[in-house]
Specification:
536 residues, repeat, Methylamine Dehydrogenase, Chain H, alpha+beta, WDR34 protein, 4-stranded antiparallel sheet, 5-stranded mixed sheet
Amino acid sequence: ARPFPWELEARAAGAPRAGSDPRCPRDRRALSGPGMFADRTAPGADVPSLWRSARSARCEAKSCQTGKISTAEAAAQSHTARDAAVQTEQSKDAVQDFQQEVQIDYTGLLSFLQRVEDAVIKELNKNWKSHAFDGFEVNWTDQDETVLCLHTLSYPEAQDQSLQVTSVSWNATGSVIACSYGRLDDGDWSTEKSYVCTWNLDRRGLNPQHPDLVVDVPSSVMCLAFHPSQPSLIAGGLFSGELVVWDTSRTEDPVIWRTGMTDDTHTDPVYQVNWLPDTKHRNHARLLSAATDGKILVWREERDGRLALAEGFAIVAQQIPHSTRLKKVAWGEAAVGVTSLSFSPFDPAVFVVGVEGGFALRCSASAQGPALPRPGGAAPLRAPAELAFSPHAGPVYSVSCSPFHNLFLSCGTDGQVHLHSMLQTQPLFALQLSKKYLFCVCWSPVRPLVFAAASGEGEVHLFDLARSTQKPTVSLKQSESDCPVYCLEFNTKHTQLLAAGDAAGTVKVWQLSSDFTEQGPREMSHLEQLASEIMD
């Protein structure tokens, strides 16, 4: 047999042949025989295996210990998005069917238009002449439903004397607010000093506790009214019965006219003052004052700074129409105290007065009948009362004629608001708004169905009759102390502003939302419908 390769390698290295054993005597003799052979000890043979080294090299990468595996995360969300239409294309057959469906019969259409032409033109002409949308403007802006308090104004010196804000008035530009300080509750009325303060809300650096002008007045000021066209003139009625006109542009001596204490002057506090246009002299104005002595007097300005009596009226119980149920009073108490007055915007000769007896009276400046008994004075007094409306349960404190319709509001100590038509004695509705007194009520100058009321519970109530005739739309908290709110006035120039004065001596200027300043569609027709209803 052929020897294996490793046997040949062993023989070359001097290894014994297979099957021989050096320990055997015969073999030992052969090795140690005479001649060329001699005994010796051969070192051990080391035969490296080429096969194992080659196999080991091929399996070097195979290890039972795994190496460290590194990982990484990456977002799979793409950063951009794209839309693609998924509408399948129409087949040619479907397109042909669609085209066949929309074929127009022009001959039939022409025949139809000719038949309806006269009727369409008639309706278009009728719509052209319609007044359904007169005064309506489309509001493309978003509605703002918030009401914010922009300013809280006060005069600390007046507050230190515990004086109250008795009246507020906006000037002709709508940028200046004036308030009068006095006292509507118990106090020493005859000697109480008071103030008239003004703030220009457009002035930079407005200090709400530092008025731009402070006028000292020796008697409580019960009411104020800015001139309708001259921004610096303001009239005030005093507790003493006097009437005073100030020019706010004069800082040294702002008094320019006053009635003084004469036989014609009111003998009771003046609770209402209004500017009237002078029909004879366009550049002049007359003043009207109403007081709880029952007199309504009209004054004209004189060159010497004096206000002279031009004409006057007196509310006398015996001369009020007999359809009313005024309680009988003694002749000495025949005069009915006037607490408020408002002119109709539709007839300058018609005005409504509120009286202490709880009635609202419709009066006429054109009345010629004399007031009885005839008091002495520079001008004879006339009896203006024409109609008495259903009474409140207590004195009426405020009346306000609507600038949009022949309606008026009244409120008083019974906490009710009455909505009246000038043409009927019963109210259209009577709303119990407060458990305490209501001191003032005022129509919005821009929204026919919106009015505000001031309560003795310290709240200003805003009504939108388009939403509800039973409850206020918004009730604003004037102060945290729940002190009464005595006076209100809307700003006719900046119609989003409403001023309110309270017993704590502060004036708050509220910014109304667009819901209360922008007229809605068919609002006038809604008011017409409301006016035509008669309360059961």
